[in-house]
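I'll show a record.
***
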Amino acid sequence: MKIDGALTHAITGIQRGLNNAQHHAARIANADQFNADNPSSLVEPLVGLQQDRLQVQASTRVLQAVDEMIGSLFNDKA
């Protein structure tokens, strides 16, 4: 994969994870918290938040790898 393609995928993954986290957080904030009969309504957005966190972490690691590749290319040219 080319460096610019990996960079694009990393940034897109971070943006997607943050957007999904915002959506899941809004669902949690708007949940009927006083309805003790249905606590499972929070399960899906809470699990979703964990998935979003993992997506952002993985995409950040890809971004770090791209940064290291670019750095090593510049060091090789110098």
Remarks:
- Helices lie at 3-29, 43-77.
- The chain has one domain: 3-77.
- The chain has two helices and no strands.
- The mean pLDDT is 87.
